[in-house]
């Protein structure tokens, strides 16, 4: 795990003080020896089974995001990896040991000693999809037509994941309509219907869908929203609606290693968004992306300091409807597409053919109240602090209760879909 070194401007805070790193040692003092023991074992937060599982599937999510971003270097990326992880975890119920181990390694289950992973996953899903969190997520396993499925697979699938598998009819229009109807029902009509036909040669198709509309803990004043420049690069800019708060209260830090400014804004329902904003518009985002792990994000959550700042944030409404098949093949899961053993599902030889993801994410000025919550007391600083998301940035939507990664995005152009 990368050590977190946040320069938190504490020298400018009244009362002074030194900056701490992620291990809790003061900057300038000797760092503790590296023992190879993960932070998960040292931090009480990760000793809670549901939190430990959330960390594992989130690390899968960061892996998936990195591959997807690498495949789309010049485009926005929007993912809710939890829905994809859920489909994979559910599929592992039907896998024999060799194939199950491949899935579990990709999901980082091999680092967990929990004997009831699927029961804990049920608890995780219940927590992150609680009504007040404004986050919807659903997953489904779809099988080829006329496949005979063992009831011994369906029962635990329903028990832990609350879903039943779907058998294709072989009629692409009928199958697409059925899948669209299922998505609409799961997402309460928040996702647009897909026009992408389901291929007739599918053996196993995984589908993960998600939707989130953020409600800020402190709402933005719509009268302060205006068209402002978003710098695509050093030479090009576009006008986009930017929300503004001249006296925003946020949690802030500067990571000198990654050369980026980090800010966290609370949302209602025990969720928050962490922004990674490079110091320069020309800076490549890859180094930031490579640092992302559950442990790193958890350290950030502990280390950021509450400050008052001049804040601008672009209004955002993004969606994704496409495949993550190639991305899964890149992260330890090629064997699922070649010669897996799913004999706990059926007596016929089947393999993963396709993985689809549909997601929608938006935020606007909406929020709980006009002022910050009492627990967010900003430290007094002796210089003005600006935080303007007016150039490419990365954001992470995190569930505060479990630490689960709910959404992640690379925003190169806020106008993108």
From TrEMBL:
PANTHER family in UniProt: PIGMENT EPITHELIUM-DERIVED FACTOR, SERINE PROTEASE INHIBITOR, SERPIN
Keywords, sorted A to Z: Glycoprotein, Secreted, Signal
Position of the signal peptide: 1-19
One cellular-component annotation, GO: extracellular space
Start and end residues of each Serpin domain: 62-414
The family this protein is said to belong to: Belongs to the serpin family.
Presence of keyword Lyase: no
UniProt-annotated location(s): Secreted
Any one GO molecular-function label of the UniProt entry: serine-type endopeptidase inhibitor activity
Entry keyword Signal: yes
GO biological process, any: positive regulation of neurogenesis
SUPFAM superfamilies assigned: Serpins
Stored PROSITE patterns: SERPIN (PS00284)
Name this protein carries in UniProt: Pigment epithelium-derived factor
């Amino acid at each position: 795990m990368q050590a977190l070194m946040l320069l938190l401007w504490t020298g400018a805070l009244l009362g002074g003080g030194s900056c701490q790193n992620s291990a809790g040692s003061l900057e300038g003092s000797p760092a503790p020896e590296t023992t190879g023991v993960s932070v998960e074992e040292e931090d009480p937060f990760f000793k809670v089974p549901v939190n430990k599982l959330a960390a594992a599937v989130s690390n899968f999510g960061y892996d998936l995001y990195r591959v997807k971003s690498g495949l789309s270097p010049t485009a926005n990326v929007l993912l809710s990896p939890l829905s994809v992880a859920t489909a994979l975890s559910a599929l592992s119920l039907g896998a024999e040991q060799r194939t199950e181990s491949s899935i579990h390694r990709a999901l980082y289950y091999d680092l967990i000693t929990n004997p009831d992973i699927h029961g804990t996953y049920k608890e995780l899903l219940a927590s992150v999809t609680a009504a007040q969190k404004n986050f919807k997520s659903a997953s489904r396993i779809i099988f080829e037509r006329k496949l005979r499925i063992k009831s011994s697979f369906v029962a635990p699938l329903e028990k832990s994941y609350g879903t039943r598998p779907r058998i294709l009819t072989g009629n692409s229009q009928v199958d697409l309509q059925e899948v669209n109807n299922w998505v609409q029902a799961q997402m309460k009509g928040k996702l647009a219907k897909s026009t992408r036909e389901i291929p007739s040669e599918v053996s196993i198709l995984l589908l993960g869908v998600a939707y989130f509309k953020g409600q800020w803990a402190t709402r933005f004043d719509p009268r302060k929203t205006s068209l402002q420049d978003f710098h695509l690069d050093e030479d090009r800019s576009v006008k986009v609606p930017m929300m503004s708060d001249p006296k925003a209260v946020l949690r802030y830090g500067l990571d000198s290693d990654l050369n980026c400014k980090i800010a966290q804004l609370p949302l209602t329902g025990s969720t928050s968004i962490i922004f990674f904003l490079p110091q320069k518009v020309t800076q490549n985002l890859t180094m930031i992306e490579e640092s992302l792990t559950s442990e790193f994000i958890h350290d950030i959550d502990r280390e950021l300091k509450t400050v008052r700042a001049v804040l601008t944030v672009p209004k955002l409404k993004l969606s994704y409807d496409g495949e993550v098949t190639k991305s899964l093949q890149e992260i330890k899961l090629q064997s699922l597409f070649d010669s897996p053993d799913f004999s706990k599902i059926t007596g016929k030889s089947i393999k993963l053919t396709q993985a689809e993801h549909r997601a929608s994410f938006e935020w606007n000025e909406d929020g709980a109240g006009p002022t910050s919550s009492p627990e967010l007391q900003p430290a007094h600083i002796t210089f003005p602090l600006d935080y303007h998301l007016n150039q490419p940035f990365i954001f992470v939507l995190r569930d505060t209760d479990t630490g689960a990664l709910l959404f992640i995005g690379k925003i190169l152009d806020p106008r993108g879909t």
